[in-house]
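TA notes, week 10

Several of you asked for a full example with nothing omitted. So below is the full record: structure tokens for the whole chain, then the designed sequence directly under it. When grading your own attempts, check the secondary structure regions first.
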């Protein structure tokens, strides 16, 4: 059964830091077996867009239900009234969890794809509060296909930087797990000051690297540091975020551990939102060996096999340093991780979309949803295109040969205005011609 699916998102333009988001959205266009329309928007669903011509609506994680800026109350009401299957993807789930549950209930979503580990999902999104919702774990990102194969012949011994890393400072209210993104830099520098290694590591915003320069940087590194992505504090009400943000602005000299002692001790580590970062997949695809803090990494990576494990107290730092200086060891680990993680296709976007397709089709049948009447899909696409709001655009995977179609609203509007002007001009010419003919007979 081939379903007509409308995916709402806020699709960014190709820029320095949007690759993971674009890969995620584009995967639906490229790999779904269903008819997918990607509709990029903010706030309001256009009045002329008839949602009832679709079997399924997906709301992408780029449109947060928590803020009117992304999806307005009017749009939420329209989604609530939609009788087809409703699917939600969420990320950054550590904030205002209670409000998120309220919004999910109001719209009456059927399927939730969450980044919480399977063991935590019921604790965060309990069936008692969301009785009609089925919940599935998924990753924040998968193997970026554009990187596969581009570093096949670059050996560890030929790379100039022994250890590379770019992190960033994260708001303190996210807890110690998030703070590790920057604290690993200070700790690493402290314990490796005399290691005689070429290192390029930083968490300062001015040192951030994006786009092709980031890929060039990573392929010049033998190894790269890493930590689990996510947070160790869950803010159910939004209160912690407000209080700690205010504290950091008022007392900017206070360290994370000061703030943790004041506000976070009772909240730290009660829930797990620890996952593998898309940066790990990037490094593996480029055969750059990962040096990671001990962790679960979504069950994807095996310590000692796919990455060098670093204890958080740095008690095994000498063993880690010996591994960094052994080019043969690094080459073998890089190749092994590449073969088992990248080439296996288990963590590819194609496999991800195949799973989503199966879940959506299964739930559509299980919930006894009615398939919409058969429409000419090309006509439906055109109808959707001409219903667009000012800053939205549509992509479709329905073209022959899976060629993606992207149409800009501004171009469409220009064409429409041009057609109208041509019609007016033709009418004017016809009137002039008639007047000339009449004048000749006078």
């Amino acid at each position: 059964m081939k379903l007509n699916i409308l995916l709402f998102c806020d699709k960014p333009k190709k820029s320095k830091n949007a690759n993971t988001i674009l890969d995620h959205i584009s995967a639906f266009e490229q790999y779904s077996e269903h008819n997918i329309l990607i509709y990029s928007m903010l706030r309001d669903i256009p009045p002329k867009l008839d949602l009832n011509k679709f079997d399924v609506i997906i709301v992408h994680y780029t449109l947060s239900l928590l803020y009117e800026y992304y999806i307005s109350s009017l749009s939420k009401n329209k989604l609530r009234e939609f009788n087809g299957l409703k699917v939600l993807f969420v990320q950054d789930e550590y904030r205002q969890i209670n409000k998120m549950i309220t919004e999910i209930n109001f719209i009456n979503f059927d399927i939730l794809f969450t980044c919480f580990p399977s063991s935590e999902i019921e604790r965060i999104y309990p069936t008692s509060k969301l009785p009609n919702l089925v919940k599935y774990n998924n990753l924040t990102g998968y193997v970026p296909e554009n990187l596969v194969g581009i570093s096949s012949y670059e050996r560890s011994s030929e790379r100039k930087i022994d250890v590379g890393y770019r992190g960033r400072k994260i708001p303190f209210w996210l807890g110690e797990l998030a703070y590790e993104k920057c604290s690993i830099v200070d700790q690493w520098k402290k314990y490796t000051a005399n290691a005689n290694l070429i290192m390029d590591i930083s968490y300062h915003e001015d040192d951030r690297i994006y786009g092709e320069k980031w890929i060039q940087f990573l392929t010049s590194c033998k190894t790269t540091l890493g930590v689990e992505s996510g947070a160790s504090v869950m803010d159910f009400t939004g209160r912690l975020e407000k209080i700690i943000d205010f504290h950091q602005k008022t007392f900017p000299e206070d360290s994370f551990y000061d703030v943790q002692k004041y506000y976070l001790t009772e909240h730290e580590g009660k829930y797990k939102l620890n996952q593998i970062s898309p940066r790990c997949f990037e490094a593996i695809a480029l055969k750059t060996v990962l040096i990671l803090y001990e962790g679960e990494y979504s069950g994807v990576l095996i310590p000692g096999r796919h990455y060098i494990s670093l204890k958080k107290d740095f008690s095994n730092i000498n063993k880690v340093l010996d591994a960094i200086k052994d080019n043969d060891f690094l080459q073998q680990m890089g190749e092994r991780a590449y073969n088992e993680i990248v080439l296996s296709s288990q963590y590819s976007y194609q496999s991800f979309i195949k799973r989503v397709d199966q879940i959506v089709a299964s739930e559509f049948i299980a919930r006894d949803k009615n398939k919409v009447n058969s429409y000419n899909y090309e006509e439906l696409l055109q109808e959707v295109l001409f219903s667009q709001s000012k800053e939205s655009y549509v992509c479709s995977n329905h073209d022959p040969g899976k060629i993606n179609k992207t149409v800009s609203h501004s171009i469409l509007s220009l064409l429409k205005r041009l057609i109208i002007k041509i019609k007016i001009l033709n009418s004017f010419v016809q009137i002039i011609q008639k007047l000339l003919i009449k004048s000749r007979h006078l």
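The mean pLDDT is 87. Use that as a sanity check on your answer.
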